[in-house]
Structures are given as C-alpha cells and as structure tokens.
Write a structure and sequence with these properties.
The strands form 2 sheets. The chain has a two-stranded antiparallel ribbon. A two-stranded antiparallel sheet has the order 3-4. By secondary structure, it is mostly helical. It is built from 22 helices and 4 strands. Among the domains are: 96 residues, no CATH class; 144 residues, no CATH class.
Length: 482
C-alpha cells in the first residue's frame, strides 16, 4: 500500500464509501487515478496534475474536450475491394486468389486500426473517454472479419463507443442493438419472423445488461421475436428495420406484455433492479476492485438509478470517492496487455507507439478487435500466466533497448549516483511502491556492485545500466497492477 492514500479501517462503511476523498493529493494518488481513468500518465502530465486539486483533475477527466477520431488512412473493407472488379466470370483459382488477397488487405486494415487505437490511447487529450471506449469494446464484444464484420464496420463501432463513452447506458444499449457490426456478429441481421435468431437476445441479457439468473428461456424467445427485422442494408451496410421480417405479434417479456420491438425490450430491461446492480458491479470491477461488497454494489446501483443511467455523474462520484482512493483499491487490478503496453510508453514519456507493440500484445494474450469469444477477455489473474509474463518481460526488454528510447525525456537525465538513480527510477515508474530490499538490489545493479549502493555510475556504461534498471523496475510485481 502506498503511503498517502486513504486507509479505511475494518469493514466497508457504505455511508462514507462514496463521499469525496479528502486525503493527500500527491504523486501516488494522481498516478492511481490516471491508471484507472486512463492508461497512466507521463511524468510531465503528473506534474501538471499536481498543480491542480483532485476535484479539478476529476472534472477535467469527466468533461473531456472534443477529439479527432479520423480512421487510419489504410482502412479498407471487403465491400470496397469487391467494387474494384467483379468476381463473376473468373475461373475458380483466380477467384480464390482474389478473395485471399481481399482478406489479406482486410487484415492489414485491422492491424492499422489496432496500431491507430494504441497511439490514440497514448496521446488522447480525453483519457477517460478512451478508457471507457476500451471498457465497452470488451463488454459489447464484436470480432473483426468474422461473419462479414469488415474493418470499416469495426471502426464505426469503435467510434460509437467513443461517442457514448459517458452518455446514457440505456441509450447506448439501444444504439449497440442497431450497430451493423453487432447485428452481423450475433446473427440478428438474419433474424426473421419465420426464423427468429436468439443469439443477440440471449447475450443482451446474459452478458450485456442483466446477468444469468435474471431472465428465463421464455424471455430469450420473446426478446428474439421483438428483434426480428432489425437488419442491415446490404448496399449501405447500415441499420434498417424491415417490417416484412418483423414479428408484430404480442410478446410477454420479463413480466410485461405488448407488441414489443427491440426498443421496447431495451426499455423493459433497464427497468429491472438487476440491471442497475449488473452495471454497478461492472463499473466497480473496472475502476475500483474485484468482488465489491454487496452494500457497495447497492450504493452504486442506486446512484445509477438516481441519474437515470447517465454515466458522467456516476463516474464523477466514483472517481473522487473514498472507496476509489482506499487501501483495498490501490494497485488491486491486473493490467491488461493494452494497459501494460500503453502505460509503459506513458511511463517513459514517449510520444508514439511502435507497430511492433501490436504483435507484443498478441503474445500477452490480447488482440484488439479480436476478443476470444462474446464474453470478452477474462482479465484478472488470467493475464499473468507464465507465458504471458515472459511476453511482458520481452516487450519491456525490447523497448528499453530500442533506438526509440532516446525519445524518453527523463531516462537519460538520471543522476549519476547509483542510489539516487535507483530512487528516481522507482519513483517515476512505480511511485516508490517497492520494499526497501528491492531498492537496494536495484541500486546495487546500477552500481555494478553486489555490496554497495553508494558508487557513481560509470560514463562508459551509463546508458546500458539505466536501461537495464528500468527493465528491472518494470519486472517488479507492483508494475503488473493498476
């Protein structure tokens, strides 16, 4: 536990858990806030934050500025490629080769989109907007290229999450229900009165809004009927309601009866107490800590209901609360590969992420726009297998030994004293969250001595030792945690 953060005693006091934190506003508290509400902060960003209060900093995060989100220039999709020339009349081998070429172009587009998003996470002036986009990407999951989900549709969905990052959850769920990428991925685009498809109706409740045990199989069937006819226009690739395919009969869903369509289903879902509890748990697991107390879930659920599911006022309370800055919350969550990669570039103050980071993330277990299944990434301890930890260490080793490290504004300016250099490294990278033994070991490494931490770094191997010291700091257990 880092000194200077609020330390609750005994069990959670729910009456004060959401009260604004009044403890010290220092580098540790600011770093904690930025790891959770963003992807970390550069040393310069932390310095500027500490010239303002915690309250002002949270206000800045919540009221984010407009930010450009133009897609990467390389973004193409299969429809565009097919328009370049007809496949009819071609022999089978030529057609197959052209389709393989199209798929390769799509995959290159997705790689470009992944790289674009990582850099956006790094340099965005609206870190909470991007962090919420990342949360929603893993919550309302869709996989690229599968089921004709093109890169262009994936980008469109990504921007949808960004546009609604701190908006109304009910409205967002309705927009997601009409999103072309989602309609294709969960098969609702081909759901008709004659053959209602239950995939989206089921996942909407199980994974997106209510959780298991809060609906019946009959509710799934009735919801699927309501969503029939919600499809996409093949020419425009946009949402359309097709009355010919819609089941306009009476449905009974979650105890309510009427001639429902998909909009009505979403409305009824958000009237269920289980929905606010579901989203409260989701937000607490993402921003505070895992397995939150039932009383805390109830308090945040009440906050959601009070604000009619508007996220901005809820996050405004949560990010400045006692429980957010509590001992239990501090470094309580495992960094995802995206958080690890972007946060590492942030820690070094580097301005741009190299494309190789996309491959490194894949080895760590996360490929943006390719969740393992509709439930998304499991997260938590699942990120810390032996193989994934080796991948994290390899990524840091490659980065600290790369030519790009010359862009780090503070690493080459470390003090020449081994002890002082170790202190700056651990403070900048870990805010000092290491035991004294780890400090002594790092200082000894920098000094090149097994006994003393009082020497002066040799000019001949200064850069090599400093880079190695940065690697060792990032290999420490605390660095794996948000």
């Amino acid at each position: 536990m880092a000194a200077g953060l609020h330390r609750p005693t005994g069990q959670l006091d729910v009456t004060t858990a959401l009260v604004p934190y009044a403890g010290p506003w220092n580098e540790r508290a600011a770093s904690h806030l930025m790891r959770r509400a963003g992807f970390g902060a550069t040393p310069g960003e932390l310095h500027r934050m500490l010239t303002r209060s915690m309250q002002q900093t949270v206000d800045d995060l919540i009221h984010f500025p407009p930010a450009d989100a133009s897609p990467p220039g390389e973004l193409v999709d299969l429809q565009t490629l097919l328009a370049q020339g007809p496949l009819r009349g071609l022999d089978a081998d030529t057609r197959r080769q052209r389709l393989m070429g199209f798929r390769m172009e799509e995959r290159r587009s997705i790689l470009a989109l992944q790289h674009w998003w990582l850099n956006r996470m790094l340099v965005t002036p609206a870190p909470l907007q991007e962090k919420m986009t990342f949360l929603l990407h893993g919550h309302f999951t869709t996989a690229a290229i599968q089921k004709n989900v093109t890169p262009a549709l994936i980008y469109q969905q990504n921007q949808l999450y960004r546009d609604n990052a701190l908006g109304n959850l009910r409205d967002l769920t309705l927009v997601v229900s009409k999103d072309p990428a989602m309609l294709l991925y969960l098969d609702n685009a081909r759901s008709s009165k004659a053959h209602p498809n239950e995939n989206y109706a089921r996942e909407l409740m199980e994974l997106f809004t209510l959780g298991r045990g809060n609906y019946s199989e009959e509710d799934v069937r009735q919801s699927a009927r309501a969503f029939t006819g919600w499809t996409i226009n093949r020419a425009t690739q946009q949402f359309v309601q097709n009355p010919r395919l819609h089941d306009d009969g009476v449905k009974t869903f979650l105890g309510r009866t009427g001639n429902f369509d998909g909009s009505d289903i979403v409305t009824v879902i958000y009237q269920q107490p289980a929905c606010s509890a579901f989203w409260a748990t989701t937000l607490l697991n993402w921003f505070v800590y895992n397995d939150p107390e039932p009383q805390l879930v109830d308090a945040v659920a009440h906050l959601l209901e009070k604000n009619d599911y508007q996220l901005a006022p809820v996050l405004s309370v949560l990010l400045r609360s006692n429980v957010f800055f509590s001992e239990r919350a501090y470094r309580a969550l495992v960094k995802s590969p995206a958080e690890f990669v972007v946060g590492t570039y942030k820690a070094f103050g580097m301005p741009e992420i190299d494309p190789s980071a996309v491959r490194a993330m894949a080895q760590m277990g996360q490929v943006l726009f390719y969740p393992p299944n509709v439930a998304g990434w499991p997260g938590g301890a699942a990120w810390l297998t032996s193989q994934m930890m080796i991948a994290r260490q390899n990524f840091v080793a490659g980065l600290v030994n790369s030519a790009a490290m010359q862009q780090s504004p503070w690493l080459s300016a470390l003090p020449r004293s081994a002890g002082q250099a170790a202190g700056v490294l651990l403070q900048t990278i870990l805010q000092g969250d290491v035991p004294q033994q780890s400090f002594a070991q790092l200082a000894s490494y920098l000094d090149g001595s097994a006994e003393s931490a009082l020497g002066t770094l040799s000019p001949e191997n200064f850069e090599l030792r400093v880079r190695g010291g940065a690697y060792l700091a990032m290999a420490m257990p605390a660095y794996q945690l948000n």
